[in-house]
Amino acid sequence: MSQDTDKKDRDGKRRFLDRKVSASLCITDNPLALSKLISSIFFVSGIVTLTQATIGVRLPIVQGGTFSFITPTIAILSLFGECTSDSDWKERIVEVQGAIMVSSAFQIVFGLTGGIGFLLRFIGPLTVTPAISLVGISLFDAASFYGSANWGLTAFGVVCITTFSQILSRLALCEFKLFKLFPVILGMSVSWLLCLVMTETGVITDDSTKDGFRARTDRSSDVIQDSDWFRVPYPCQWGTPKVTAAGVFGMLAGVLAGMVESVGDYFACARLSGAPVPTVAALNRGVLIEGLGCFLAGLIGTGNGTTSYSENIGAIGITKVGSRRVIVFGSLIMILIGCFSKFGAIFATIPDPVIAANFFCMFGMITAVGLSNLQFVNLNSSRNLYILGFSIFTGISLPKWVAANPGCIDTGNDEIDQIIEVLLSTSMFIGGFLGCFLDNVVPGNAEDRGIKKWRQETMASEASIASASQKDSTYDIPFVTKYLNRWKLTKYIPICPAFMRDQTLKKADEIENNVVPNYEDTVFGEQNGFKPVESRTPEGVQRSASGRSLPYRVTSL
Fold it and tell me: pTM of the entire structure?
């Protein structure tokens, strides 16, 4: 139920992801192509969600397109120049496909090798905040463009979404919290209805040369008739993917951001659904499946990658239903929708003011989500303020300068020029890189940096993972785990359920016996700035079997 009630709002998110990319792909005036992209992303999302829920992290979490891929995608497509009447959108999207496919190998390798724990040692709130917030901030021009079709209708849409999501969210109709579950889809529907009324009454101009024409509901109505009833998306449907070093390096920023966000989502989903804390093997499988999902998205050509949906986790908290079975049925529905082309065609007819209203609310929310990580940081520290301000301001300024000065990068090597230009055009890469570099180089203690509290709240340590009994079968792979456990080699394979089982069982026993493991044996260790503290009980300081005092306190998620 939680996934069903939130499904329409996620449908809207997928729709707007494709609509934002469509301008750079030069298919704004080709609604039939846009409808095929929408159907493709539904199809891939369903397959990846089904795989993730069954053999991946095995949590009730939905996979789909992500905003973190939009900024690098636009940067890559900017190398083609402005859209003209002769622009071929297929030549552009195969470039994006190749970049997503190759960059996803980075995530696949991290899942197979268990490298996510090592990577997270260097990432904290001052890295995540500028990277995520710049995703929303950098897309302000898209919101203003679509809003320019009719600012009055755009404002009406914003008022509707704001009213439904913030004011009427606690109102229940027959004990059903309609406005809290469907604020976006309700806001879209009301705004769309008003556009329809104004179109039929002639209030909106029918002159296609004016901006107001983009607010009409009948300007793309032919796409519903022209689209096929049934069409199965297939690999390389737009052509053979092309790989360039510039595209791959640029897309890595989106892959990294999505990977870090998903790890936090896994812990949050487990907590809200009542599941044990995810094991190390489950985390590795989750990252691996997302990497494979990105590869599949690039192979089929959705114009985007895949990552976990935080909205789905919020729906679990509202409905109190977190069943994997629901997720499986929901994923099958998404696959069918992806094959039903008429459904994607309906989304392609949404008027621009309706799109703009959602852009204003959703991009604003993304910016706020990024800034929310500052709750862990000491904002009275001039060090933190400098890193934060410099990272965000530079992440806005440099891409604007590169966009205004084509060909400004000239090293004498065209390939290197393209790599540098794409990276400097990707605001989230600039902000995240500068934030990470300065946060790890400029002296500062873990508490002021927010590292300590942030990791305790969002990631959990090995000792916390150990407290979840490994005898629980929640994260075992169905049907094959008992056969895998017969092979001693599997305990050394990061994605197998037996990985680190002996170590975690030992730590779980120590926790059950009120013996806290030495922090030097945990993931992060003292080298990350954590200060030793005594863990005391009424009987005194806890000690290990050897009699040595254990100076670190274990904090559960």
Answer: 0.69
